[in-house]
């Protein structure tokens, strides 16, 4: 065999070995892909099994929006949605200008007064509210104008007494039927 034939033969052997190595590498890659897909399938089955077990335990029974539409889903995206929800959830009222806070408090004043139990407490609450309205009108901090009216203490006390009497009459109007007469043991 000539030197040229020997080199050609070695070159062919090297090409065959590389081709065989490429086939083996391709086979290993295929095996790896199969293993990954099987792992993903098993992971999906495992996740499904965990979710089903949680459903069986009843962990999803009392979700907040179960059977209801998700709020604000159709509205355009608001980047400050989390801040607004936080303020709403935590009832943050000091973060707004006094004029807006007083408007909100004015709208909810009857409910706040109805929660009070004595006339002195109602009078003190109304005096405090009127004092804060006067102070907000005197301040020149800017912001929206204070348009919240002062509340007449005597008129609000009269209305509070009327609402309280109406609630008492409504409670008394609800008549519970008397229990049925007990049957004597010898008449059973």
Compact overview of the structure:
65% of the residues lie in helices and 0% in strands. The chain is mostly helical and 188 residues long.
CA(first)-CA(last) distance:
123 Å
Structural class label = mainly alpha
Low-confidence stretches: none
Identify the overall geometry: elongated
pLDDT average, as an integer? 83
Radius of gyration: 40 Å
Describe the fold and architecture:
By secondary structure, this protein is an all-alpha fold. The mean pLDDT is 83. Helices cover 65% and strands 0% of the residues.
Topology:
Elements: H1 3-57, H2 81-90, H3 98-107, H4 109-115, H5 119-138, H6 153-173
Helix pairs in contact: 5-6
Provide the descriptors you would attach to this structure in a database record:
mainly alpha; elongated; 188 residues
């Amino acid at each position: 065999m000539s030197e040229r034939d020997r080199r050609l033969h070695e070159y062919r052997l090297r090409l065959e070995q590389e081709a065989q190595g490429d086939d083996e590498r391709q086979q290993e890659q295929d095996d790896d892909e199969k293993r990954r897909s099987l792992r993903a399938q098993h992971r999906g089955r495992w996740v499904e099994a965990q979710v089903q077990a949680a459903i069986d335990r009843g962990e999803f029974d009392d979700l907040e929006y179960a059977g209801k539409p998700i709020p604000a889903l159709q509205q355009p995206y608001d980047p400050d949605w989390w801040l607004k929800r936080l303020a709403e959830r935590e009832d943050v009222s000091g973060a707004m200008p006094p004029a807006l806070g007083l408007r909100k408090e004015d709208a909810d004043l009857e409910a706040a007064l109805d929660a009070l139990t004595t006339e002195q407490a109602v009078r003190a609450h109304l005096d405090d509210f009127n004092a804060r309205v006067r102070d907000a009108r005197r301040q020149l901090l800017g912001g929206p104008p204070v348009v919240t009216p002062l509340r007449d203490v005597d008129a609000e006390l009269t209305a509070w007494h009327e609402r309280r009497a109406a609630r008492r009459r409504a409670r008394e109007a609800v008549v519970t039927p008397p229990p049925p007469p007990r049957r004597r043991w010898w008449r059973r």
